[in-house]
Structures are given as C-alpha cells and as structure tokens.
Amino acid sequence: MSKVSMPIPADFILGAAASAWQTEGWSGKKPGQDSYLDIWYKQDRHVWHNGVGPAVATDFIHRYPEDVALMKLAGLTHYRTSINWSRFLLDYEQAIVDEEYALYIDKFLDELLRQGIEPMICLEHYELPAVLLEKYGGWQSKQVVELFVRYAEQVFARYAGKVKRWYSFNEPIVVQTRVYLDALRYPYEQNTHKWMQWNHHKNLATARVVQLFEQQGYRREGGSMGVILNPEVTYPRSSAPHDRLAAHYYDLFYNRVFLDPLLLGEYPAELIELLAKHQVAWDYDDRELDIIRRYPVHEVGLNLYYPHRVKAPSHQWNEHTPFHPAYYYDPFELPGRRMNKSRGWEIQPKIVYDMAQRMNRDYPNMPWFIAENGMGIENETDFKNQEGEIQDDYRIDFIAEHLYWALKAREEGAKCLGYMLWAFTDNVSPMNAFKNRYGLIEIDIDHQLRRQPKKSAAWFGRLSTTRTLTLTLDDQYK
Known about the structure:
alpha/beta, TIM Barrel
C-alpha cells in the first residue's frame, strides 16, 4: 500500500447528479401531469420501500435555495438534473407550457448560476408523461417521438440562454428493460418486440433533438446536445472462446444498442441480424436510419457503478417464451469479489479505466465524462458520530478509487471531461426509495427532511478547492 497524489485539471468536472422526479415532489402538480413513475407508485405503492415514493421526495421544488447553497459548500462545479416533461407541459400534443412549473425552473437555474455552478439538463429521466403511455404505448409510438421534439423545442427556446449542456435521456435502456424484458416493473409485460421498439425510438428521438438543436443555432452559440448512457463494463468468466462470446453478446444487446447509433450513427449489423434471426419485430426505415447517421450526439455521459460478469449459457431456452438476450449468456459471480453488501453490487473501480480504453478504441472522437458513480448504503445513521454527522469513510474511499482511474485515463489521453457523483443528496430510487443512501448530504425523512452534510461533503469540497486527489492505493493497482 502506498500514498498517491494526483492533480485534478482545472477544467475537470467535479459535480453531482439527480433527477426531477427523485427530488422535486408533487407539490403544485396539476391533474393529468402524472409521469410513468407517478402512476407506477400509485398503482403499486407496496413494492416501494416503506411505501415511500416520489410524492414528497426531497421537496427540492421548495428547498432548492438551501440545496444549491449546500452544493456550493460541497464544492460542486456542475449539477445535472432533469426537467420533468410530465410537469413542464399542460398539453403534450400542442406543447403548451405550464408557466408555474417553468418559472420554478427559471428560478432554480438562476440560483445555480448565481452560485457559480454550471447546470446540465436532461430532457427525460424516466419522466415520460403517463397519458402518453396510456394513449400511445409510450415510446412504442412514433407519435411520441414527434411530441418529444415539440417539448424539446419549447425547453430550448426558454432556457438555452442559461443552459449550454443538454442531454436527451438518462439511461434510455432502463425502463423498457425492466418492463418488457424482465417484467419487474409496471405494467409488467414480457415483450421483446416492444423492448427493441422503445430502444429504437429513443435513439431516433435523440437524433431528432440533436438535429433541432443544430438547426436552431444552439450549437453555434456554444451549446452541446448529448445523452447519458449506462454501459455495463462486461467481463467474461474466462478467456475461453465460449465465455468471451457470451460477453460479446451481452455487450451487443445492452451496450452497443445505444452506444453505436448515438455515437457512431449506425446500429451494429450483427445486432440487426440477431434480432431478425429471433424474429424480434421492430419498425424502422431508411429515413430514420439516415437521421441517426447524420446527427450523432456531441458528448456522452457514462453512468458507471459496477462490473458485469457473464459466462457461456448452460440453460435450455423455452421456445414458447419470447426471445430474451439471456439466451446467449448466464450471469457469473467472481469468487472473493469486493462487495457493497447493501446494494448487492461488486466494487471494482478499474471499470472506469477499462471503459476509458474502450472509448479510446471504439469511439475515439467522442468526449465523455462519468455522469454517475456512487455508493448506496443502508442504515447510515449507524455511522453517526456524537455530533450527528455520518462518518461515511466508505464513500470517500469509493469515490477516491474511481476518481483515481478516471484521472489516470485522462493523463494517458482519454477524452474524459470529469466525474459526477450520484448523488448530491440522498433521494428516492425506484422501489428502494430511501433504503440505500447515496448522498453527500443526508436527508432526514423523520425530521421535516432536514439536510445534514456527511463527512464526505467536506472531503469533496476540499477536493474541489485543492484540485488534488490523495489516496492510499494497493501497489498492484498503481
């Protein structure tokens, strides 16, 4: 073990992320403005930990001045969140803006800028309006792509003078994978055709919004239009060809289905062939593929939490069930792995460096940054000192190790623009609610959502001020 010190470049982002639905709460929400997450919570409150969901969240919509001051205290240079599509509009077909909600966004952005924190805004972070799911089947429909572009046009017109960095989606693969591949979330339907259609329409919607952004001159004015993806750094169980092939297929279905069209402008030919082989029907045409080809994103955020490990499949697939990519792989658990036992995730900080090498190899012209990375822990109050401050040294170590690999990759020439933590405050997650806490700032849900900085908040603030990372590292990882 030895002590390592690394400089943090002056232009390297040190930020944090959240979303509208996980923070704002429902105060002021009007009838008909439910999002997909809202109706899921209303339908199945019992599956959310302790019945807690987005109704109150962290009440950011009222508490944002306090929270932005805490962001400044914690040294954030950037803050990424979303505009809640379901609340920004009163009429989704005509794109009529809800001026009350829009004014709140104006004031929040002004407060960020006043404190010297750069806003980074997603247009959709699981906030698909519920009425569009009910009327059109959500992203199953090309009409929803059109309505998303109308929504984006209104958002850009109002806020492009305040926000330069925009993103179409956060983790665009997640909702349909949980609903239509794994049937774990409302409305619980195993349907691979819908899964792929949602994937394609989100790729198309991103390209359409990049097209709009460029044609309306926002790119010339110094803005950028990107996307936030969650590629899983995938390792085979062994170097044997059958295990390596399993990892290749996993990567193809879950990572390259978005990475390639959005960064390179085309779907992998092998993916299209496999979908056809398994009779997965999805509606696309040459015009849509041409739009995707012509309008790749300008930058990409990557959410990186844990490695994914697979091995060659040993199972027999039931021919009477819809095709699932798991036809080609089985999950594999590495013996002796480091674990975050609260979350059930392996801890392997080198995924950041390995992803950087992949970006250099496969997408060398694309600027990228770590858009989310963090550690969720249960029962954090067990770690409070006598003054009531959570001593989250485990989080400090987790951040430091992942940041080390990002900075090492940057020193070696990777186009890594920065590191953003999930999350700034504790907040609600799907189903887990406040069970696992991720924040630099504690949200005490038993005492009027009182904010209390954790030990990690002061550490992150010093990191941002000194622009130097110091950590103790196992010599084998240097």
